[in-house]
Design goal:
The protein is α+β, with helices and mostly antiparallel strands. 18% of the residues lie in helices and 23% in strands.
Length: 285
Amino acid sequence: MHETIRNQLDRDGFAVLEDFLRPAECDELVAAGIEITKQIQDGTHKSVFSANLENPATKDKYFLESNDKIRYFFETDALDENGELKVDPSVSLNKVGHALHLLHPIFRCYTYSDRVKAVCQQLGFTEPAVVQSMYIYKNPGIGGEVKPHQDITYLHTDPVAPIGFWIALQDATIQNGCLWMLPGSHKSGVHRRMKRTQEGTLDYDRPAPIYPQSSFTPVPVSKGSCVLLHGNVVHKSAHNSSDKSRHAYTFHIIERKNNNFSQDNWLQEGKEAPFVNIYTTSQIA
């Protein structure tokens, strides 16, 4: 089994693990994600997240300091011209991040589960650590498009690339915005990086590459499936134009041993979310 996962990642840059979570476990995580939306109040900071902002320096302090906190990021289409909600709070969020894996008891329980530890072992990790986690809502009608990108653009490591765990908590279909992959693209190096400047802003080191859209392959998956993503594989997702949400829980793992996590990555180790070893971290705080 472990050779199959490693072979798929080596060949394609991604692998699908079906039935990674049971339906009831997915429902528990969805309930936790929905419960978070109920904590949105009138005074909540309205930070918009769009994966398509070509000028990341516009990202505010609220985003830049979310490395060891649980913070809300809204869809562009959820706010009016005055920055106030124009949709129900329950469907207003793009995502919540970036320290659910340590600070939220339910997400922590699943992140540091034996299943995750077993996959890390099968992939050959010696000292794996989760560096960020996100709950992604992809709500019907307003769930935004994510342009083609590599995760290593934002979480640069060398020489061992990060691995993403992308867990579908609901069925992910072509209609509601499933992942699309560019198979084999992980073998073509790091295409660009987003770096934190000395001034504390963010900037890309080169323009966005142009990828042939016909080369992308859709990866629809059923509820409970986990998609493993090599940090260098190019992937994207479309706008959710359906009437069904596409909730997902995702986190990124890096190798700590003999591997460099770049000091100019936007996200760095935080006091409340240190990069702890997955193998030795308890599911309960």
